[in-house]
Specification:
Heat Shock Protein 90; five-stranded mixed beta sheet; 7 strands
Length: about 450
Amino acid sequence: MISYSYFEMVNNIFNWSMQFCTAYFFYRFCRIFIQHSYLLIISIGYFITVIVLEWFIGDISNFGVYLFASLTAFLLLLPLKNNSVYLKFFIVITYFSIRWMAPTIVIILYRPISDLSLYLVEKWIIPHLFDVTIGYFSYTIWMMLVLLALYIIGLWCVIHFYEKCIHMHPRIFENREILLLILPPLIGMSSYFMMNKYHQVIGDPIDPDVIDQFLKYWGVHNCIIIAAMFGVLILVQKLDLQRVQQQKQLVLVNQSQQLQAHLQSIDALYKDMQLLKHDVKNHSATVERLIETKQLTEASIYLNSMQQQMDSKVTQSVTGHAIVDLLIQEKIKKAQAQSVVIESTFTYPSYVHCDVYDLCIILHNALDNALTATKDRPSASISIHSIQHKCTYILTIKNPIPAFVNENNYQGGLGLQIIQDIAKKYNGDIQINTDHQVFELHVLLHFHAQL
């Protein structure tokens, strides 16, 4: 006959396993929002707090045990830098609710599985055993495994959803967004009080149908809260995406206006060229007459005047494209106003199909970021370099990182997102390197060869 001590031992193993899974998923949930090796220590602290309160003190309710464990985790999270207190509070409160509500949704399956398993054990196994306690002991172990599996599935599903949703649009949440995200988990804490009320009446004589009805309402309540948590998270993400897209559109509209101004400059240059071409015969005839009459000094002065006039109206091509030349020269003038030097060996892509508008948008954003970074750093240097191999084109821009910015966190802002979107349009991407306070932007583009 299996003694009661074996049942107690199995129950203790089950409880330790449950708490270990709880601490593990707390670690998983923290890592969604905070990347730090210290999180492992925090999870261990969470686990030890639950074990001490539940096994060694024992007079505290389940609600109190996990409330103290969450408070311990919050205090251990506070020393972590680069993360707001609001985010840390959101993590512990949300997991406090998830740990309770997520498993309860799938644990609704526990009762029918338990009834079916007990029926099968009593009908098919126990009649063939000399010691019936072996059958009930086996049933107990099986149901503990089922309960542990349902507990893990519930936590994994909810946390996996959070991982997918956050990783689709990684960013730093603002405090007002975090306060909005906290509301559903706070409401979800009412599920604890519902279950406490259930435990108070379960000992009294009561119709089993009433209990079943309560459990159904309780499960629906938890499903609604979990759905609200997911809904608010998705809403916050979509609103932020919409805001970023609107910002991109505003930036693109502004840049389009600037490029239109460049195009108007090109048009004016073209008209000046046409006028010079029209007048070149008259200028040539004048010079010939001056030479014929031996007025060489006057002819030389006239030629110098012609040269100056042409130099003032005609821009020498440096990059291989007039529009890009004007854009870079405009940025060079802005850099000179800041006492910053722009060194360029940039050349326009050749033998490939390239939209000059897209390339100007890339240069405009990259150079504006570089000029912003060097605004308070006179005598700084910005370099532009390009290399092409067949249809593959790489543009590199280097500039110093602002003195007030940590080199590990400096990423350039919204302009880089626009550059990356254009790079993806050409099956390319961007790469950012920082080394000794220098920011390097590499833009990889794959063009189609011209026919």
